[in-house]
Structures are given as C-alpha cells and as structure tokens.
Amino acid sequence: MKKEPRAMKILAISGSLRAASSNTALLCAAAALAPEGVEITLYGGLGDLPHFNPDLDDPGDLRPGIAPPAVLDLRARIQAADGLLISSPEYAHGVPGSLKNALDWLVSGSEIVGKPVALLNASPRATIAQASLAETLTTMSTRLIAEASIALPLLGRRLDAVGIAADPDLAGPLQAAVETFARAVGL
Ligand SMILES: Cc1cc2nc3c(=O)[nH]c(=O)nc-3n(C[C@H](O)[C@H](O)[C@H](O)COP(=O)(O)O)c2cc1C
To answer: Residue 125: is it exposed, middle or buried by C-beta count within 10 angstroms (0-12/13-18/19+)?
Structure first.
C-alpha cells in the first residue's frame, strides 16, 4: 500500500504580544499563502511562559526537575515541528524579552537542535534584533535558512493578514520565502 506523504508542520512564533501585531499578521499571512502540504500554526503561549529559571528544570538536590506546564507545552510543540518561522519586532535594539525568555527555556533541551528556522521581519530597519536573534539561534544549533529569511515593510501600515496576502508586493516575496523554506526543510 502506498504511504500518503504527511503534512509538513511549521510552528510560527511571533515576538510581539500585541493583538494588532504586524509580525503576527505577517506569520498569519505566511500560513494563508503556504503551499499545499505545509501547515503553519501560530504558537500562542509566549505570554504564558514563566521567567526562565534553570532551578525549575534541575533543583540541584537530586530531585527530578519538573518544568512548568507552559514550558513542557512549548518544548512539545517545538519537538513536533519540522521547522520554525519566527518574526519579531526590535525593542531598544534588542530581541523582545518574551521571545528571548522562550528561547532560554529551550537552550538546555534537544528539541530545537538542528531545527530549520526562517526569520521573517515586519520592519526592515530592525536589523540589530534580527542579527541578535540569528546569533542566539545559531548558538542553539538551529539550522538558519538565510534564503527564506526576509524583511517586509509593514511598519505603520496597519495591515492584517488578509491585507498582506492581498497585496502582491508583499504576498509575492512572502509566498516565495515560505516555498523556499519548505524546500529547505524537505521531509
Ligand atoms: C518600547 C519600544 C522600543 C522600540 N525600539 C525599537 C528599536 O530599537 N528599533 C526599531 O527599529 N524599532 C523599535 N521599536 C518599534 C517596533 O519595533 C515596531 O513598532 C514593531 O514593528 C512593532 O511590531 P509589532 O507590530 O509586531 O508589535 C520599538 C517599539 C517599542 C514599543
């Protein structure tokens, strides 16, 4: 019997907690433009993660550490994903604390190691956070897919995912980036 190919699972993580976030809208537009067989799901737990504290994983007194449920959920989602799509704002020339916090929870585990990652960016001027994010993800042994990592000028345009997907100047490069990423992830 011929085995049906399974869908490629991509987890999308926005570094912004704003309801009207341009980075979240960009990721939702990427999901809408994804080719058949590629499922992009938005991670919604960033704001629920506790502050990173290594003691919660390993209390250091021979008791097994049990990470908080939100952390276990994040790790399971990363493990189950074939690749990650991240889009983040820059705050004071840095990566938003909530996104860095999530990455810190993943440093000691194996879930993210070797995982293909594409970095999207809703603001082309936000280069410092983008470079910092790339440095962190490289240090964490992810596989950064540079040719699928693009910046699109959404800052101040108040576009939602539907508006982005309907604008050929935005949807064209975004769709191409998602397709490039899917090819790099393979399966
Ligand atoms: C507190 C704060 C600090 C910011 N710092 C920077 C910065 O250093 N560099 C930059 O390019 N934009 C900066 N911005 C602008 C945000 O990066 C921009 O509003 C971003 O696109 C918002 O993303 P979102 O729509 O996904 O929330 C800052 C915004 C805020 C609120």
So the answer is: exposed
Is 121 a pocket residue for ligand 1 (Cβ < 6 Å)?
no
- Residue 26 alpha carbon, nearest atom of ligand 1: 26
- Closest residue to atom 24 of ligand 1, CA basis: 21
pLDDT, tens digit, 9 for 90 and up, residues 121-142: 999 999 999 999 999 999 999 9
CA distance 161 to 6: 26
**Alpha carbons 120 and 42: distance in angstroms, whole number:** 14
Nearest to 85, CA basis, from 17, 187, 184: 184
Give me the torsion for CA of 49, 86, 126, 91, rounded to 10°. Answer: 0
In this predicted model, what pLDDT tens digit does every residue of 37-88 receive, in sequence order? 999 999 999 999 999 999 888 766 666 668 899 999 999 999 999 999 999 9
Q: Measured between alpha carbons, how far is 27 from 122 in angstroms, rounded to an integer?
A: 10
